[in-house]
Amino acid sequence: MSTRTRGALIVLGVLAGVALAAPWLSPFSHDTLDWQHLASPPGLESGHWLGTDRLGRDLFARGMQAMRVSLLIGVLAALVSVCIGVAWGATAGYVGGRIDAAMMRFVDIVFALPYIFIVIILSTLFPRGSIAALFIAIGAVGWLTMARIVRGQTLSLRRREFVDAAIASGVTTPAILWRHVVPNVAGPVIAYATLNIPQLILFESFLSFLGLGVQEPFASLGSLISEGAQEMESSAWMLLVPAGLLTVLLVAFNVLGEGLRATLESRDE
Amino acid sequence: MLIYALRRIAGLVPTLFVLLTLSFFIIRLAPGGPFDQEQALPASIRANLDAAYGLDQPLLVQYGRYLGGVVRGDLGPSFRFKDFRVTELIAAGLPLSLTIGFAATLLALLLGVPLGVYAAWRANSWAARALMNFSLLGVVLPGYVVGPVLALVFGIYWPLFRVAGYEPGDASFLVLPVVTLALPVIAYLAQLTRSSMQEVLQSNYIRTARAKGLGAHVLLFRHALRPALIPVVSYLGPAVAFILTGSLVVETVFGLPGSGRYLVQGALNRDYTLVMGMIIVYGVFTLLCNLLADLLYGWLDPRVRPS
């Protein structure tokens, strides 16, 4: 593992740790109103390390709460896309023939559609502000590439002896898929899922930026940026704090994902 | 080639049909309707409204009618913008969105590809390294971070460009939106061009060309560039789609009256026809650009040309 990758891992660990510990680190919660400090700039003496918004809510508390949402959605949506993608790809690749052709044709069509439209449409399906709905909507479109990768791997696995042996000893198709195919595609699946997480985090903050995602009183980095952008002329920190947090998060995840992929690729060779 | 192109265009029809059908039914599944308000309308008025817009018909009938309209080029009336057809609304905003999108694509190509070529040619210089590190940032950051920060720096702290109160025809409003939109594409194109250029520069025929004493310019631009551009061209389709959806963000950030904002507004207001219209128009654009990229690909790389 290169220094760069290790650095990214440490940064992510610290960020996640601080985000999780924030309720104990700061006396303010994401929806505490501090009437003494409306729109006050970052400072130590007020206790608002990263300043407050125009309702007097602490930006550190809100930023960290938003970070928890981002991490949660990134990981859960990645899980959703892994589940759908692996099931779809493994089935298509293993069963083969017309079913495979039809299933992959479906993936091709959905792939050709503008991704973000589907997320926007899906996000209208659920009551506004439901986080569960968000990660289903985001994860439900993230599985396409996963399905392709898994199918490709399955196609070659299908011809291996241990699969023949399993068929010969009378194991049912679902059991073969679950016990023999799925464990063998785990490596690339994990690598791709990690690379996918920043993408999913971006989708969440994008939807929240547009007002379709996380709703008040909860914050998302996207909604904080959108609020900050409206106040930036008088209070630049309201924009710069969430923008900085999102930047660090995304860069760290990308460096980590790239490093992981490079490691896997060099191991394959 | 022509027959191939025509066949590909015909192939778009089923994809569009699936897009239209999926989005029509999914958006109807969403809770709430276009006429839901804080205070419920009297039942008789509500019934009249539903009847006027055909919402009292069974869903399949509505779908059939809508499909019939689309085939005839009519995207229906907007539910929320009274007295406007969806076609009119989109036609009013589309020129601005397309201007921004086209300018951003052009800027990205004019900057991204040369930067990538430079970074490959002088791979070990500090400038190339700095460029590549910077491009990581460019690829990662979304428009809703870059846009407001650019507006803050170049619109407020150092007021070079105007960022509020758009006036049609004044290009100084468009500089920051275009840069915001182009930045991630520039960064990605630079990375892509660099890596494929590096690969090409290591190939045998380049070594031969170098050995027979060709100058750097001829070598780079006549021999190496065309094959190195193949991955770049295949990225162009997705890039244009990216820029189109990005214009949605940029129009929100910079308060521009383009058509992108209708998608979000329509989704929030349950303005069914407006959302559908936007999806169809932007969907057609995306699919056409992908197709164009595929055809260009065939021109650049004879190996994938259909026989």
CATH homology superfamily name of chain B:
MetI-like
Q: Which two chains touch over the largest interface?
A: A-B, 40 and 44 residues
End-to-end gap of chain A: 16 Å
Span between termini of chain B = 8 Å
What is the general shape of chain B? globular
Record keyword descriptors for this entry:
heterodimer, A: 269 residues, 0% strand, elongated, B: 307 residues, mainly alpha, MetI-like fold, 12 helices, globular
Report on the structure:
The complex is a heterodimer of chains A (269) and B (307). Chain A is 74% helix and 0% strand. Chain A has helices spanning 3-25, 59-95, 97-112, 115-124, 131-157, 161-168, 173-181, 186-210, 221-231, 237-268. In chain A, helix 2 runs parallel beside helix 5. The two termini of chain A are 16 Å apart. Chain B is mostly helical and 307 residues long.
